[in-house]
From TrEMBL:
InterPro entries: SGNH_hydro_sf. It comes from the Bacteria. This is SGNH hydrolase-type esterase domain-containing protein. It comes from Candidatus Gottesmanbacteria bacterium GW2011_GWA2_42_18.
Length: 386
């Protein structure tokens, strides 16, 4: 029987559509197979393996080597020794240990507390400076199977990590969202390095001086926002120009001086909360174990004590006393617990006495005192025996 031109056209369209669906399914299966294989190898790493990070700032000087596994951590022994309980700590620079030595990181201090009781507990630091929940998901994918991880602690830096969610979502078009959701492994093949940006943008392959990057970056910022220099505290202006102050903090203040005050906008927070639910579910899916997943809220300094306000206003930010009473736990706890994590927050503990000397005033990261407070809090709240 001869088909009419209309039937032939419809048939060709259906065959074409079927071919597209089959192709997408085929590529999808390849993507998943690649994920299983590559995440058991060292293809994806948090940072450049065997690189050397140098930090020389107004408030601290430190340097350290990134392991051959791409972490600010000693090399993890494989296979896992019998009787060892392994915890993967993912997060940003507050987990990575920005501004402190290897021995002063809260992950190292907490591990030592458990080992002093005779337990074979290892806490593996997979913190990545400057990154968000998406990077934490990639860290889980890259290291959980490889290291035979038993549970995960997610170090979440209060409002900043929430704001990054909204900023990243706003910069993605629908095609990008589809590709990242459907073919996440293939999308990452071009860039196996998860972060941080100062490594990705550095011309130095192994020896990375963060202060050198800041010095170059601050000149770009001043050229674009010349008025920002008038807002900088005179006592630190020269430090800023010499690369001794984090240029990224100044860049944000120059573009959006009300950055920290946006945490007080209920309408913005409700939108971010919806994104937060979605990312938490992805995080749970990629970090899931039979054992509990712990979510640690690390507060930013302006929400802890008024004593830290000069560190914000001195770099050009507008600050308000209401930040000292903002209920970040009320915003975060419900989504976290409903997703299946155990919620832990440092905010009440830090606010109880203002956490003196816990933060570098100008750099805003945790000092060695701050890391001790984190480790002490976690040891009180986590199981005493794993």
């Amino acid at each position: 029987m001869l088909l009419s031109p209309a039937h032939k056209s419809r048939r060709r369209f259906l065959l074409f559509l079927s071919g597209i669906v089959c192709l997408i399914l085929f590529v999808f299966l390849i993507d998943r197979a690649l994920a299983i294989y590559l995440n058991k190898t060292d293809y994806f790493t948090a940072m450049t393996a065997d690189s050397f990070h140098i930090m020389d700032t107004k408030e601290f000087s430190t340097s350290f080597r990134i392991s051959s596994q791409g972490l600010r951590n000693r090399n993890v022994v494989m296979p896992k020794p019998k009787g060892t309980y392994r915890i993967l700590a993912v997060g940003d620079s507050f987990t990575y240990g920005w501004g402190v030595s290897e021995e002063e990181k809260w992950t190292t201090l907490l591990e030592k507390k458990y080992q002093e009781t005779g337990q074979k507990v290892e806490i593996i630091n997979a913190g990545i400076p400057g990154y968000d929940l998406g990077a934490y998901i990639h860290a889980c994918q890259s290291y959980k199977s490889r290291f035979d991880i038993d549970s995960v602690i997610v170090g979440f830096y209060s409002y900043e990590d929430l704001d990054q969610l909204a900023a990243i979502e706003a910069n993605k078009n629908q095609l990008t969202k589809f590709l990242e959701k459907t073919f996440p492994t293939l999308i990452r093949l071009r860039q196996p390095l998860i972060g941080p940006l100062f490594e990705q943008n550095s011309n130095e392959s192994k020896n990375i001086n963060v202060s050198t990057s800041w010095k170059k970056w601050i000149n770009v910022i001043i050229a674009q926002y010349p008025a920002i220099l008038k807002k900088i505290e005179p006592a630190v202006k020269m430090d800023l120009l010499e690369g001794k102050i984090n240029a990224n903090l100044v860049a944000i203040a120059a573009a959006d001086p009300d950055y920290w005050l946006r945490a007080l906008n209920d309408r913005d927070l409700e939108y971010i909360k919806r994104l937060f639910y979605k990312e938490l579910n992805r995080l749970k899916k990629n970090c899931a174990y039979n054992n509990p997943l712990y979510f640690l809220m690390i507060p930013s300094m302006e929400t802890v004590s008024k004593d830290y306000f000069p560190g914000r206003s001195g770099l050009g930010y507008n600050i308000d006393d209401r930040l000292l009473t903002i209920d970040l736990d009320g915003l975060l706890k419900t989504p976290v617990t409903e997703t299946g994590f155990i919620y832990l927050s440092l905010l009440p503990d830090f606010r109880s006495d203002g956490c003196p000397n816990c933060y570098y005033l100008w750099d805003s990261h945790l000092t060695s005192t701050g890391h001790i407070r984190v480790a002490d809090y976690l040891y009180r709240e986590l199981p005493k025996k794993f």
